[in-house]
From TrEMBL:
It comes from Flavobacterium sediminilitoris. Residues 29-164 form the DinB-like domain. This is DinB family protein. Signal peptide: none annotated. Pfam families: DinB_2. InterPro entries: DinB-like, DinB/YfiT-like.
Length: 169
């Protein structure tokens, strides 16, 4: 899938480049859900709250960050698909992590929330018409299309799984 440069900010290029080979956003969201569930379920418990460096997130923090970010990206996709032209602010991911208490929860509990959010994301993206997927709005002071947000969700998850494999396991 080829996206136009006006469909996403340069900041998201890393995520887009990891996910652009997916042909079907909805099918890929479904497949990725199963893969992520298996991935996190197989991480040893003693690694769940590990930080590879002081101030870095734990594996539980990362999982809840993925959940929070997917909610934000889906909300943006919903508003843009409905032709809402109101600019949407960014969000401070570090503040979210600091205030989310992920480490007070189990991986199993976090995965239940992840599956719930992913199910809602799949339903939302299934509902979009081709015209709606092409709509462009403004979030974080940059233009973004509905379909780009789908690829950002996919690529963002791939990025963080890669970081976990490299630095945590």
């Amino acid at each position: 899938m080829e996206l136009n440069k006006n469909e996403f900010a340069p900041y998201y290029a890393t995520y887009i480049s990891k996910s652009i080979f997916f042909k079907d956003i909805v099918k890929s969201l479904k497949e990725q859900e199963e893969e992520l569930d298996a991935f996190f379920s197989n991480i040893p418990v003693e690694k769940h709250e590990f930080r590879y460096e002081v101030g870095k997130w734990t594996i539980k923090d990362i999982l809840l960050h993925l959940i929070d970010a997917e909610r934000v990206f889906s909300y943006r996709a919903l508003r843009i698909s409905r032709n809402d032209k109101t600019e949407m602010p960014g969000f401070e991911e570090n503040d979210y992590v600091l205030n989310a208490s992920a480490n007070n929860r189990t991986i199993e509990n976090l995965l239940l929330e992840y599956k719930s959010v992913r199910s809602a994301t799949i339903s939302l993206f299934t509902s979009f018409t081709e015209e709606q997927k092409m709509r462009i709005g403004t979030a974080s002071n940059s233009t973004v299309s509905v379909r780009a947000l789908g690829y950002i969700i996919l690529g963002h998850e791939l990025h963080h799984v890669s970081v976990i494999k490299e630095r945590y396991l």
